[in-house]
TrEMBL record:
InterPro entries: Puta_zinc/iron-chelating_dom (IPR005358), UPF0153_domain (IPR052572). It comes from the Bacteria. It holds the Pfam family CxxCxxCC. This is YkgJ family cysteine cluster protein.
Amino acid sequence: MECRPGCGACCIAPSIQTAMPGMPHGKAAGERCAHLDENDLCRLFGQLTRPRFCQEFSAQEYVCGSSKEEAMQLIALLEVQTC
């Protein structure tokens, strides 16, 4: 599956526990990452400073569903299940 351009659900719904530029404590689940631009694209994509969690994320239908809204719900559910 290809990422949906402008979705950004994977940069909002999950918590990220590792430090990143501008977010030394990571981010909470549901918090918008400071590195999402106005088009919901990651400004750190392809950079070494991108968190490992983000580097390892792969768009999959069971996580991303068929829309941004569904992705937000599915990723939030996974977040709760893995806490």
